[in-house]
Amino acid sequence: MPSAPAMIVESAVRTVPPPAPKKGGPTAPAPPSQRLDGGAGAVGPLGGVEAGVGSVSDWEAGAEVERQVGSWGGRLTARDRELVGHLGLVRYLRTNQIAEMMFRGRAQSVLSARLGELADRHGNCRALVKRLWFVNGEGRRVQVWTLTPSGYGLAEEVLGRRLKVPRHDVASQFLEHATGVNELYVALAKRPDAPRRADWSEQRGKPADDFARVPTAFRWVPSEDLELPFAEYVREEDRSRDRRLQPDALLEDPVRKRRYLIEYETGSATVRNAQHKTATLTKLARYSHFILGFADAHGKATYYSKHFADGFTPVVLFIARTAARCDTIAEAIASWAGGEMHPRFQVRSLTVEQACAEFRALILGEKPAVSAQATTTAPAAPPSRASQDGVLLSWKELELLQRFQAEALQALQRVRHTVRAGQPVVSEPRYPDHTTAAERLLQWLLALRPAKAQ
């Protein structure tokens, strides 16, 4: 992803500095990483107000527990810490996404004031978040929030692990793409029930607990932390070239042992032009090499299994902003490789709304409000096909091998006829059209051989 500096709004909304903490007050211990809070968006008690720690009133949300963390001298609430944890996981969030997760039902003034305070410098202590912005397709300026180096330090404490701190932010023209893919994370992390205005009077004076916690039901990895290497043979150069994949995000479902490699499709790149490196079919071919291609000469491990040794099933997920784009991708997937989709290569194509509804139902057990049907789903991997005497082949697989054999024989026959006629062979025979598909099928079948048969 391009890494030109983003447009940053240096000035922050000045607020009245919070009172200094009492001398001798205890500091809050670092919380455990990925707390067992019942899953993404689950709500649990905050444990009350600790001794020696004051409270601040929130006329709409009720009081929140205040804590001092690290070197930040401002007042930090439990909601602030969780927000920093979310930003540590996804890197960038729009203001409306933060409102949906952390300030649902609150006035815009409450959200703006709190984010402005976290983005402000308090004495000798640095800000935790900073503002970026981009201009959307309608010409409107959209505000985006990300962590400062001090914010990443607090996020590491909240998450309980080290984070890869980017040296600079993505360019403003790519912030829309970076925050668009995070719509799925927001949908999975947010609480399903929005607070009602009638309930605010009951919450007054109590710690706010209606915000999204750092998720535990799934694992999210941003694009900046992903670099998946593999090698690809280039026939024109007659050698292998090193390649790498960088999905827009990665979603792991530990219960069902599935790993979703997410590509967010905005419609800015072509779908079918395989010569373009950002085209959908080009991405599909590279994912196929990474997931199915063998990393060694013995055919024991694929590039995917070498990088991810946990046995999770990979699924390539294309998420489109519009239904028309989703349908175009689905048609391209269906016609890719002559319609011959490998059983172990699963590809999905969904709109943003479909993905949010389906994964909330799948991972969180929530009944979807709208139908979320997959437009394209490759057949699930069948049970083990190994037997004592060999393996079972489908009719489509036999037809594929038959076409490959016929094309290879035709190429050999043309060369033999030329030689028999006493004419020189002036052009190099071309590879059969189904060489790649047949090669993958044979490699997969050989990998099913029992150890004794080898």
Structure description:
The chain has about 450 residues and is of the alpha+beta class. It has three domains: about 35-40 and about 55-195 and about 205-215, Winged helix-like DNA-binding domain superfamily/Winged helix DNA-binding domain (Arc Repressor Mutant, subunit A, Orthogonal Bundle), CATH 1.10.10; about 225-365; about 395-454, no CATH class. Helix content is about 30%, strand content about 15%. The chain has 13 helices and 14 strands. It has helices spanning about 80-90, 95-100, 110-120, 150-160, 175-180, 185-190, 200-205, 280-290, 305, 325-335, 350-365, 395-420, 435-445; strands spanning about 10, 55, 65-70, 70-75, 95, 130-135, 140-145, 220, 230-235, 240-245, 250-255, 260-265, 315-320, 345-350. The strands form four sheets. A five-stranded mixed β-sheet has the order 8-11-12-13-14, with helices on both faces. Helix 1 (about 80-90) packs across helix 4 and helix 12 packs across helix 13 (about 435-445). The protein is elongated and about 95 Å long.
